[in-house]
Design brief:
The chain is mainly alpha-helical and 348 residues long. It has a single domain, classed as ABC transporter involved in vitamin B12 uptake, BtuC, CATH 1.10.3470. The chain is built from 14 helices and two strands.
Length: 348
Amino acid sequence: MVKINKLFIENSFAFVLLALFIIVPLAVGENADIHNIIIYILIYALVGEGWNLISGFTGQTSFGHAAYFGIGAYTVAVMGNKYDVVPWVGMLAGMLIAAALAFLINYQLFRLKGHYFAIATLAVSEILRTIFSVWPYVGGGDGIKILFRPENKALWLAIDVRNRLPFLYITLALFVAVFVLCKMLENSKMGYYWKAIRESHEVAEAIGINPQNYKVYAMMLSAAIAAVGGGLYVQFFKYIDSYVFSLDVSMIFVLVTVLGGIGNVYGPIIGSIIYYVLDLAMRRLLGGTASGLNLIIFGILIIVVVVYQPKGIMGIFDDIVNRRRLRKLKASQATTNASSNQTGGDSK
């Protein structure tokens, strides 16, 4: 019972967020706009959790996560349209392909460090974008439109254009699964190895950790998670083209994580909520000019956050909590000292 109470206390913020994501869609009824917004937020947050593993925990900045996101999306679309494979299988295949690609490419790329590695990941994503834009098998420049099969509705993740609610809860369930996995990894031996690599390659090697191998493990898992997000994305839109490999898409995952708090498992979901609210507000205020101007504004926002609040929004909450704990500790010590002094005085 004590362990259960401790679990709820330590993760109370997560349970509050989960309750909101369960209750709000039901409270708004059949409001498709609200459902769509929540699905957007969950997909971005899910991929952000994956990006956080390699960039937040391991310290390897990637600007090319759209590559794995796009692989997941195209795998579901191609297998579904050409071979009538249900999305569950398509997403699993996308995860395996993305993880394999991450292994083959990054085992060599991890020889690079710092901004050289970041630029190389961007190059990989751009190469894939170019290939998929001219490859007839995947639709070339026209992309692929998902063919909805009503007779297989249950197998097609219960997607119904008139009711997004079932798909929303499936997306929520997958996000929760990824969140729990990342939370477990954060406090695992693997997580400590990743953090040691982030702080210093030399120190990590000195204590017997192989940075090359553990960075590859992190990237493979991160790529697989991004592929799941891509699989959900293509079913949500029912259309995909080579734009999913673009820098614009990669920067969304970077932004939601940095804004919410890089290296913090709560960062991507908090950042995703803030990002979508700001993006929606700018589109309403700026209209057609928002498509270019919002990227500039978000770029400035990233710089401001990195310079003035490197730990993001969650860093602000952590600072508040730590200050309160420090005040309580000082008050407790003051009380203890006063009690000790009084006892000493009485004995005299």
